[in-house]
Sequence to fold (216 residues):
Amino acid sequence: MFITFEGIEGCGKTTQISLLAAELSRQGLACFTTREPGGTAIGEAIRGIFLHCANDDMLPVTELLLVTAARAQHVERVIKPRLRSGTIVLCDRYIDATVAYQGYAAGLGRDMVMSSHELFVGTLMPDLTLLLDCPVAIGLARSRERNRASGKDVDEGRFEERDYAFHEQVRAGYLDQARLEPARFEIIPAEGTPGDIHRHVAGSVLRRLQGDAHAV
Ligand SMILES: Nc1ncnc2c1ncn2[C@@H]1O[C@H](COP(=O)(O)OP(=O)(O)OP(=O)(O)O)[C@@H](O)[C@H]1O
Ligand SMILES: [Mg+2]
Fold:
């Protein structure tokens, strides 16, 4: 099973993925956590270019090509082999992030993003996508507080620096995607405590896993 976590900056993806991974491991299920852009040495190098604040002149089409290249490497070298061996793969962002950021907010359009995916990555889509949805003000406040508390210069903050309207478009793009593919998406309200959100996430995932077991 291939599960992706999506949502605006600071909605809690990384927090929830680690809580879910711990819960699945407790239940004796093999799972593997990874992220995009990244997940391979080449992908992590691309991530450095993609997110670095110094690269604020990057064209949306350059962004699309970079993340698509990283994704092609990630899918073939990491995700597919793990899925084949029966491991549950948890991925922090995937194609829907590219649709929301480059397709909707940066204006390339959903079709260009999906066509690039089909051309260069292939047909692999998530079995389940958990969209952590919260108002932009809450997500941005959380990520600012996280960056402040970590006390270090955050180079990977190129998108966090975008204006409010950009993030509103990202959020709307995600919600649109969820409306287009209701069977794949689960929208998880992400304003509550990490524990409450985790219970919702774990409930959705375990229900799907049980559904899969019955289907076999
Ligand atoms: N439900 C929550 N309530 C309050 N704070 C939270 C909640 N979930 C996560 N946080 C905190 O908010 C910050 C952002 O969370 P996290 O890093 O998990 O978000 P993210 O979606 O992965 O962000 P990014 O898009 O920047 O990677 C962290 O400091 C985290 O501890
Ligand atoms: Mg994160």
Observations:
- The chain has one domain: 2-215.
